[in-house]
Design goal:
Elements (H helix, E strand, L loop, with lengths): L26 E3 L3 H17 L6 H17 E3 L12 E7 L2 E8 L9 E3 L3 H6 L7 E4 L2 E12 L1
Parallel strand pairs: 1-2, 4-5
Antiparallel strand pairs: 3-4, 3-7, 6-7
């Protein structure tokens, strides 16, 4: 029989399982970050305790990620009171819409009100104060900072 017609194992066709990627650079977090990361790791450990068989593999992979993030978390230095930085809540106007966001660490971010400090918008806001006009997306005066609050 030709090798071309031989049935190969289904295992040979599965995608390789890589570790979850760790964002580059230091793992800067807000003051609340270490507790948040530890809570996520604990939740996965609890889920893992109730799981058996091959379903444990993705949970173990995720647990390795969160344990690494807990071990490498560094609380970011507080920004100046009137300057945007990690842990600041910034109200600004962009494209005619007013938004309020909090700049946080990578693993603390969510889709709406908390953005990672490495996101383009957060990088544009870092170091700004109320009343500043900032360049963004190719425009020199795209962002107007209305208020900066340190949390």
């Amino acid at each position: 029989m030709s090798v071309a017609f031989r049935r190969e194992s289904d295992e040979e066709h599965l995608e390789p399982k890589f570790e979850l990627p760790i964002p580059p650079g230091p793992n800067l977090v807000t003051a609340a970050g270490p507790a948040l990361l530890a809570a996520r790791a604990a939740a996965i450990e609890a889920q893992l305790a109730a799981t058996e068989g091959e379903a444990r593999d993705p949970l173990l992979r995720e647990l390795r990620y969160w344990r690494t993030r807990v071990a490498t978390a560094v609380i970011a230095p507080a920004p100046a009171p009137d300057e945007a930085g990690i842990g600041s809540t910034v109200t600004f106007r962009l494209n005619g819409a007013t938004r309020t966001i909090t700049i946080v660490g990578h693993d603390e971010a969510d889709a709406d009100a908390r953005i990672a400090y490495a996101a383009p918008l957060a990088r544009a806001l870092m170091g700004a104060g109320a009343g500043d006009w900032l360049p963004f997306q190719g425009r020199d005066d795209a962002i107007q900072v209305l208020d900066v609050e340190r949390r």
